[in-house]
Amino acid sequence: MVDFVNKLYKNQALFYKVFLFILTAVLIVYLLPKGGKFKYEIPKGKPWQHESLYAPFDFAILKSDEELRLEREEIAANNIPYYEYDQDIADRVKNRALQEINEVFSDSILGNYRSIITNFVTSRLEEIYRYGLAQENEQMEPGDLIYLRKGNEAFEIPYKNVFKQGEIRDYINQKIYDANLDRFSNDLLEIFFNSVSPNMFYDNEFTERVLQSKLDNISYTRGNIEQGSRVIAKGEVVEGNKYDILRSLKAEYESQVWSKSNYNWIIVGYSALVAMALLMLLLFIQKYRPAIFENNVKITFIFFNIIFMVMLTTLVVNFDVNYVYVVPLCILPLSLKAFFDARLGMFTHVITVLLLGFIVPNSYEYMFLQIIAGIVTILTISELYKRANLFISVGQITLVYIISYFAFTIIQEGTIDDIKSEVFLTFLLGGLATLFVQPLIYIYEKIFGMVSDMSLLELSDTNSTLLKELSEKAPGTFHHSLNVANLAEAAANEINANAMLVRVGALYHDIGKMENPTYFTENQVSSVNSHDDLAPQESAQIIIDHVIRGIEIARKNNLPDRVIDFIRTHHGTSTVYYFFMKAKEIDSEINPDDFRYPGPIPFSKETAILMMCDSVEAASKSLKEPTSTLIDSFVEKIINKQMEEGQFLNSNITFKEIQMIKKILKRKLKNIYHLRVEYPE
Predict the structure, then answer these.
(1) Angle of the 296-319 helix axis to the 12-31 helix axis, nearest 10
(2) Per its UniProt record, what PROSITE patterns does this chain match (predicted)?
């Protein structure tokens, strides 16, 4: 039992990776659509390369988007508007007109013509309000039809039969003339204009409701294909009606309700493909990025990004598939490049795009566009912390999307007439959404405890609280750190290491000297040496302790682990040689391990570079009269001694790179001491 527990403990990292692998696969399979997947791509405008295809079941032919659009436009154009007839207004107008007769005409005149005038006014109002009086509608033509609603009944009438307010004057004048009532013309016009008002109003709500009902009842299909009928023959061009039939077969196939047995097999198929894709990613990381593979936090970060992109794309597709390109998928390679490297970012991006091919329509077109965009992203952004680079890359990503979409549309349609301008807007929105990568990287740093180049840039600011404290308490150490940072950055650039990381590491590598600054020669301003009254062992322990103190200060100030690594390893397991030799003069049997730094030795190119630069820069201060030859031999001696002690065995640095670093250090030191080439005497 104990052996089993020990074995379980030793392999807990592996068990975690297996658990993470299974969890990621399950989540992705859960998010994938569970319908059947049509096994053929439909190459519009190209010959059918597969065997002749026969209908596996009965299905209806779907109308194309263009057909549906034209049908909707036709229904909207032919839709008859509804007008509401208000009988109460008509009755009030008639009553008001009768009152106006008594008010306008005097009793003497009205006595002889009461019957004639009353009949004239009443008859005219009945004619005006027979179909209703409306305000002029400029959108209606005289020949158009309308529905007139009286109560619960609706009548279809020509719009020309309806009286409009603008027609009242001419109509009344004509009727007055016909009735030989010209001498009463002004009074009669006054009666009508004081009485009449529109009683027929356009019912927009009811009209729209009827229109929507008609649109909802549009049939999305035209005709049927019976089981066993040939859908398309091999070599036949996929266009027109054939394309619509194939598209209809694909839609029907993927929307069918599957039996429990079929559903389970679909799950098995998806699980196998997703697991295979994720396994390829893990194997790639294990083979080419073993340091990342051993770090469970980093593996979790990579898998989290994949799940995040799959989930985001699924949500957008379920909301509206037309917005699928708004998802800023290029954030994935950008984030991974910021924390790791371009190659891992690109490989993960390709795996993620392959998985998303199960979710999106037109998967080949989608995968082509996204992979090309990912390549452009990786190639164009070399330094993410420079804002100009990110904006330029966003513009290039958007341009790639637009050019690719333009090319695919020409290939599929054979014309540019079918290009949809709104698609360009989704590309632009997707490109702009990529700018969110900077705040997202900051969030990732806080959640996963990693560090990006943007954070390194902030840490390299010498006005930061910690570096200002170092410059005040230990100005000599601060000056030494700046010199080491310049040397290390130049060396890192020479061998294509992370120059920003090694510079930051160099700036902070000696912060532990703030505890006892006068015990380090670069901070001693007088001839009094603080070590004169101490035993060699005590002096050596104070020197060694600056590494431990530096780690404590770094953790207290929340410096990233990648920076703390430089503090921990910049002396490796070397000895405090000066005090060791001093102690040896007293006791020849002294144990050298008492004067040895705790380590560990450098485990990356960057930490190895810092060790070399730190030793060379510190020792160069002891040169009395430096010459070009002296500096060459001096650099060779120090770095060769470190190599003999095995300080670089774990740092994955080659002999060639070490030679290149030596060359850089020699040149830089000669520049520092303003040396010229020595001429022979």
Answers:
(1) 10
(2) HD
Are 93 and 85 a contacting pair, CB within 8 Å? Answer: no
The reported pTM is: 0.65
Q: In what helix (H) or strand (E) does residue 66 lie, and over which residues does it extend? A: helix 65-78
Half-sphere exposure of 679 (CA within 13 A, CB side): 1
Identity of the residue numbered 438: Q
Query: Which pLDDT value is given to residue 413?
Result: 67
CA distance linking residue 370 with residue 380, whole number of Å: 15
The amino acid at 555:
R
* Distance (Å, whole) CA 370 – CA 329: 7
Cα 118 from Cα 126, distance rounded (Å): 12
Q: How far apart are CA 462 and CA 626, in angstroms?
A: 30
Strands, E, within 37-135: which ranges?
A: 53-54, 59-62, 82-85, 133-134
Q: Which of 215, 235, 270 delimits the end of a domain?
A: 215
- Residues 13-27: tens digit of each pLDDT: 888 999 999 999 999
> CB atoms < 10 A from the CB of 179, how many?
16
349 closest CA partner among 364, 334, 365, 366: 334
Of 175, 218, 194, the C-alpha closest to 62 is: 218
Residue 173 shares a structural domain with residue 297? no
CA quadruple 497, 503, 509, 510: dihedral sign: positive
Range of the domain at 105: 76-215
Residue 257 scores a pLDDT above 60:
no
Residue keyed to tokens 């007139």: 148
Q: 666 Cβ partners below 8 Å, 6+ apart?
A: 631, 632, 635
CA distance 287 to 406: 39
The DSSP code for 415 is S
Q: How many CA atoms lie within 13 A of 85 on its CB side?
A: 23
Residues 624 and 488 in one domain: yes
The answer to whether residues 201 and 173 belong to one domain is yes
Phi then psi for residue 674, to 5 deg, are 55, 45
Q: State the alpha helices, DSSP H only, in 381-497.
A: 387-413, 421-433, 437-448, 453-459, 465-473, 475-494
Q: What are the structure tokens assigned to 558, written together?
A: 């929340």
Which among 413, 448, 483 is the end of a domain? Answer: 448
Per-residue pLDDT, 351: 96
Q: Retrieve residue 574's tokens.
A: 């070397």
Q: Is 367 exposed, middle or buried (0-12, 13-18, 19+ CB in 10 A)?
A: middle
Q: Do 8 and 136 have their domain in common?
A: no
